[in-house]
């Protein structure tokens, strides 16, 4: 039932084998070249991507620094306002006397001072 098939080995078959072998080698060279081109393109995209992510990270850090500096500026300006307000109030002699008595326990020789917490004049 089964018949053996014998391949002919004439010049046409040999030429066809040679042509197929040449085409396979050519395809392999083309694939190898395309592989190198693909690797080169990937390398060309990696460096800008790395730089972009690094720049984005710096941007986030700078935004955080800006927010911190704004907060610090607000705190310092509030503190400056309080200090200038206190300086203005201390120009009044009666307030200055009350402040000295409360803050530094200053008293005259015939007075006794009793301290009550959180009762400093503001």
TrEMBL record:
GO biological process: cell division
Ranges in coiled-coil conformation: 56-93
Keywords, comma-separated and alphabetical: Cell cycle, Cell division, Coiled coil, Membrane, Transmembrane, Transmembrane helix
Pfam families per UniProt: DivIC
Membrane-spanning intervals of the chain: 33-52
Domain of life (superkingdom): Bacteria
InterPro entries assigned: DivIC, FtsL/DivIC
Family matches, as PANTHER family: CELL DIVISION PROTEIN DIVIC
Protein name as catalogued: Cell division protein
């Amino acid at each position: 039932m089964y018949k053996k098939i014998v391949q002919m080995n004439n010049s046409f078959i040999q030429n066809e084998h040679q042509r197929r072998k040449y085409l396979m080698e050519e395809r392999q060279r083309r694939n190898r070249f395309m592989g190198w081109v693909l690797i080169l393109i990937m390398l060309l995209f990696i460096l800008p991507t790395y730089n972009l992510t690094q720049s984005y990270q710096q941007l986030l850090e700078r935004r955080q620094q800006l927010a911190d500096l704004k907060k610090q500026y607000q705190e310092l300006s509030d503190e400056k306002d309080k200090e200038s307000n206190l300086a203005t109030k201390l120009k009044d002699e009666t307030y200055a006397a009350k402040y000295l008595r409360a803050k530094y326990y200053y008293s005259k020789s015939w007075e006794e001072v009793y301290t009550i917490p959180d009762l400093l004049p503001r």
